[in-house]
Amino acid sequence: MNSKLTKKIFLSLIMAVGMGSLILSCAKKEKIVYEDAADIPANREMIAELTSPPNVPTPVGKRKAKKLIVDMEILEQEGEMTNGVRYIYWTFGGTVPGSFIRTRVGDEVEFHLKNHPENKLPHNIDLHAVTGPGGGAESSFVAPGHEKVFSFKTLNPGLYVYHCATAPVGMHIANGMYGLILVEPEGGLPLVDKEYYIMQGDFYTKGSNGERGLQPFDMQKAVDEKADYVVFNGKMGALTGDNAITAKVGETVRLFVGNGGPNLVSSFHVIGEIFDKVHVEGGDLINENVQTTLIPAGGAAIVEFKVDVPGTFILVDHSIFRAFNKGALGMLKVEGEKNKTIYSGELEDGIYQPEGSGIQKMPSNNGVVESEIPAKSMEEKMEFGKATYMQTCFACHQGEGQGIANAFPPLAKSDYLNADVNRSIDIVLHGKTGEITVNGQKYNSVMTAQTLSDEEVANVLTYVYNSWGNSKKDVTPAMVKSVRNK
Amino acid sequence: MILSPFFKVAFTLIGIIAVNIVSAQSEHMVTVKGGTYIPLYGVDSTAVTVEEFSMDVYPVTNKEYLKFVQEYPEWKKSTVKRLFADGNYLVNWESDESFGNQLADDAAVTNVSWFAARKYCECQGKRLPTVDEWEYAAMADKSNPDARKKESYNQLILDWYEAPKTFNNAIGSTFKNYWGIYDLHGLVWEWTMDFNSVLISGESRKDVDKDSNLFCGSAAVGASDLMNYAAFMRYAFRGSLKANYAIRNLGFRCVKTNGSNNKNLTY
């Protein structure tokens, strides 16, 4: 009797609980909104996908918050700043900027920071996405040959910089120890066609811009904020030529743009595009129809735009000498159908000569310092010439000497170039203004006089004459000297 | 009274060690004259006085360390206690009794813990240098006892911090300093007795605010930035260590106190 009764009560209890849970599970289909991101549960474990620039990992989409394991190795290694200029980079994950980390709000990130045994120095990481003292720097201070683990919860959506914060902080950052971590909102950012990762940084080398060899870091220049290189993604040319980022007409492009500094603020601009949307400073505020967005050192921005016409769009820091003289230059190549309504191309070419027009001149300090190491062989001449070309000529005449139609004449298979070597030397030394005809096309623009030594002019012209189907002339410093002294 | 055999052996050993000390000191140590200096960029009140001591001319080499582990087998790669040396202890040595042919016999021994380094020096009748002693000896260049303000000297040190894989270079391959000591800069980091007495928390920007003698002068950083940066990196490195760590770029050398009234060791 007694036991039957208990059984009954027990059964009805089970039913009640069962129904209760049914109701609960129905209720769960309604989206639970967490007032506080700290309350979002993170259940499953997942290894974070890390990518090197300019790539970004797969969007989070609709996935739930997870325990995200980030495995990052610090490597001190030699790399190339530009042709012939080597530099010891300190890196998160072997690249500058470091690997891109993609998370969503509510993720619990378990961060494993490994310092390679052959590294000389201790390092750590300060992630601006971390809420906590030092942004993780205190818990991640790791000696060479060791690994530190710490974890944090992502509370605020946005695009954040991470960097090394070990003494001397400025030097660690100046050597390339920075990167971006993205915290997407629940449900992810709206999907777009193309996403890329770009980060600006300034570099300070003992030799001046273009000086060959392994260049050590120059602390005094860094303190004085006199950068020799200002570049996207750690080196000159990281985003130009074959490394350019690409899109097709009609696609929407999203750029995650950061600025590692250490010193300079970036005026980020894409020549020939208007940003449809900018997540100002990487946060929630969205500005529309922006030409140039300011990215502070240690800050970031997300910019989005639809590409409507084909062509090469140049990414620059619009503090413009940095772009054309220090390397802050990238390319977005867009393929597809032309749209003459949006952009006509050239319609008319007339001559306009205001009063007082003359040749522009680059600043010169009373004569030019001879390049310290002369080329010893034809191979070296070509190598040094190419280095000078990439720094001085590339922006207008382009990587394969093809020039830019209607603006800058080609150097490849150029009848004008091959016709008269002394004229070519003269143009490099003294500039050129006015109409010329190259390979049947008329050009009417300005080339500035270049501040190059005889040696450098000889090398660069030899490089040009021995490339792209030209007449293979060997230009000597003596030939340059005689034109200079005319 | 009859001496037990154990004591006899012990006395003989002490005798041998004593002989070794004399020869070692005369051949491979030099005297560093005492003096007062301001470490890092401290203020006047943080001036440190170092009394005369002797320092090894070169860091301890693989060959020398091999001899040590043969004499003291408890410090062999396979027998060392984890408490005293982590898993990287002599990690590149081929075996307990050989460092193999990848490492040079006249390169500084690295991947040794603080405990091991301290023991080695003890067994030679020496000890590890204090941070103050080490920094004092290491601020000399070829011709000056204190070259810290020289730009060339600092740039040289900074350049080394960036040059990879110098640990396998032969001892003596850098410069001989004012005191006659080689390789304080340019080969490997070196253990010091009180390596972690200066607290660097790893959050170096915060350390600047710490009420610590060594860092309170930070606001006064001026002309000597370069010197600070070079020293700061050494202090940061030491701050990242624990006594059982064994690191590829970290070796050691020993010193010896001169005179009976020496106050360099105050603990």
What does this structure look like?
The complex is a heterodimer of chains A (486) and B (267). Chain A has 486 residues and is of the alpha/beta class. Helix content of chain A is 20%, strand content 30%. In chain A, strands 1, 2, 3, 5, 7 and 11 form a 6-stranded mixed sheet that branches. Chain A has a 6-stranded mixed sheet with strand order 12-10-14-19-16-17. Chain A has a 5-stranded mixed sheet with strand order 13-21-20-15-18. In chain A, β22 (432-438) and β23 form a beta hairpin. In chain A, α9 crosses α10 (477-484). Chain B has 267 residues and is of the alpha+beta class. Chain B has one domain (31-257): paralog of FGE (formylglycine-generating enzyme) (Alpha-Beta Complex). Helices cover 31% and strands 8% of the residues of chain B. Chain B contains 7 helices and 7 strands. Chain B has helices spanning 5-28, 62-71, 114-123, 131-138, 151-162, 204-207, 225-239; strands at residues 29-32, 35-37, 48-50, 53-56, 189-190, 250-251, 255-257. In chain B, the strands form 3 sheets. Chain B has a 3-stranded antiparallel sheet with strand order 1-4-7. A two-stranded antiparallel sheet of chain B has the order 2-3. In chain B, α5 packs parallel to α7 (225-239). Mean pLDDT of chain B is 79; it is low at 8-26 and 206-224. Chain A binds chain B through residues 76-78, 88, 117-122, 124, 133-134, 137-146, 165-169, 171, 175, 206, 216-217, 219-220, 223, and chain B through 88, 91, 151, 155, 158-159, 161-165, 189, 200-207, 225-226, 228-229, 232-233, 235-237, 239-242, 245-249.
